Amino acid sequence: MWRAVGVFRFATLVYGAVLVLRDHDGYAHPARAYAALAVMAAWSLITVAAYARPAARRPWLAGLDVAVAVALVLGTRVVATAAQIDHGSATLPASWAAASVLACAVAGGPWAGLTGAAAVSAADLVERGTLAQNTFNGIVLLVIAGLVGGYVVRLALRAEAAVDRAARLDAATAERLRIARDIHDSVLQVLALVHARGRELGGEAAELGRLAGEQETVLRSLVAMTPVPAGDGRLDVRALLESHAGDRVEVSCPAYAVPLLEETALAVAAATDEALSNVRLHAGPDARAWILVEKEDDAVTISVRDNGVGFASGRPERASAAGRLGLAQSIMGRIRDVGGEARVTSTPGRGTEVELRVPRT
Amino acid sequence: MYPGPDDPIGVAVVDDHPIWRDGMAEKLTAAGFTVTGTAGDGAQALRLVRATRPRVVLLDLHLPDLPGAEVTRRLLAADASIRVLVLSASGERQDVLDAVGAGATGYLVKSARLDEVLAAVRRAAAGEAVFTPGLAGLVLGEYQRLVDAPAQVAAPRLTARETEVLRLVAKGLTYREIAERLTLSHRTVQNHVQNTLTKLQLHNKAQLVRYALEQGLD
């Protein structure tokens, strides 16, 4: 931003110098014109150097900037002849004065830019005494430069802050992944070991082992990343189902991401939750469950199978079976809503299988 | 040299986690296996295997010096008769697939019960593939990926029967249950499962050779 202001300042300095060289015969005091040009050049160098350091970008510097521009505009009177001025020729600094307005805009936003523009415009008016057409044009341009310049700068700063925030979020995510990996490699393994060893020893040790197992599951779901939809609004359905893995549930899926539309993925996750709670409630105390995620050509199939007691699907009049069928209906409803199909099959004594097939797009 | 069928099965345990490694060695010994040694990284594992010739290597994929698949490849290059059984934390799916592609004979998660681990070591020692539901899901996914990849020349495909069997393994059915459901013999189910793995490993080997030829490394 500041670099842009600096470039503008020197470009307009060159333009001002060209005007002075062209007109120097007509000036009442050409030497004073060259002195003013020298002041402009020196001030340009000073401001570019000063604005380069963030600590120096203070309101008073921008104010001083405007004051110098105003002084030079007013100084036109002591250089040029009255005829030149009344003829409507450019002021001494010409468009160079606008650089100070831009500096105000960059430093303080649209309102500071407008204030700077007002000051320089006022000097213009005082210098000329009348509101000639090209003076008016110049004032309008200054005001626009101050306002729009300030606004654009605010936008740019906000965008920069957003990019910065995103970068920090990225870093935090990476850090979290690293911690999750570390926990995975150390704490979880020890907990798993205590869990397994306790189970073998039995008695009180079994109780300790069970507790370790519970904590293992809790910690595992804690470090599992909360899935966030990718840029295209899709969710890796694996990330949603993985947290079910534990002592009684095994989750099998491909090694690559299985993206689904967010709505579809969430419906699948909810249906899977229901199927698993069904297993807990009805399949018997020793039942285990397996979740399989399969990607096909144009669909994704998720199956939840258990090896529990199962039920006779042809006998809905039985109360417990009716409860399960009710759940099955709800699962089917969810999946149908996202354009998929659900199938529940069960055989008494051989467990139950819920198969969810949903479109990939 | 090679242990006979009545000899105890020699097992090497490779894991960078000392508590886990020693605990596992202890349990294997208690269960009647001969632990030929333990190692904490890939280089140590290679030295150990060359020196003690175990029949089964229980391999953790997360080692400090080498990727698990590379360790698997080098172990098998050192002694093609050993069985590499991957015992690793869940959530390292691509690593597991790479190791299996490099010739590992099976995969168990570390949270598996001890009796499951012991049974798996016995089966690996007998030359069987050790297919958990998790591994079956990975292998199914890999075949689908090969179907999806358009440039794959002569990529292996599963037969309808193999897909069916693999799917049932992934859903947690035992070989016995699968045999019953599909009215096949236990042996046939085993062969189907083994085939899916062998095809994948052959394909990987062919890919490596093709890559080497393309790069002029032959």
Overview of the structural elements:
The complex is a heterodimer of chains A (361) and B (218). With 361 residues, chain A is α+β, with helices and mostly antiparallel strands. Chain A has two domains: 2-163; 230-361, 2-Layer Sandwich (Heat Shock Protein 90). Chain A is built from twelve helices and seven strands. In chain A, the strands form two sheets. Chain A has a five-stranded mixed β-sheet with strand order 2-4-5-7-6. Chain A has a two-stranded antiparallel ribbon with strand order 1-3. In chain A, a hairpin with a 5-residue loop joins strand 6 (341-346) and strand 7. The mean pLDDT of chain A is 82. Helix content of chain B is 55%, strand content 11%. In chain B, helix 4 (93-101) crosses helix 6 and helix 6 packs across helix 7 (160-170). Chain B has two domains: 10-130, Rossmann fold, CATH 3.40.50; 135-214, Arc Repressor Mutant, subunit A (Orthogonal Bundle), CATH 1.10.10. Chain B is an alpha/beta fold and 218 residues long. Chain B contains nine helices and five strands; from the N terminus they run βαβαβαβαβααααα. In chain B, strand 4 (83-88), helix 4 (93-101) and strand 5 form a beta-alpha-beta unit. Chain B has helices spanning 18-30, 42-52, 68-78, 93-101, 114-125, 133-148, 160-170, 175-182, 186-214; strands at residues 10-14, 34-39, 56-59, 83-88, 106-109. The longest helix of chain B is centred in the C-terminal third of the chain and has 29 residues, at 186-214. Chain B has a five-stranded parallel β-sheet with strand order 2-1-3-4-5, sandwiched between helices. Chains A and B meet through helix 8, strand 2 and strand 4 of A and helix 1, helix 4 and helix 6 of B.
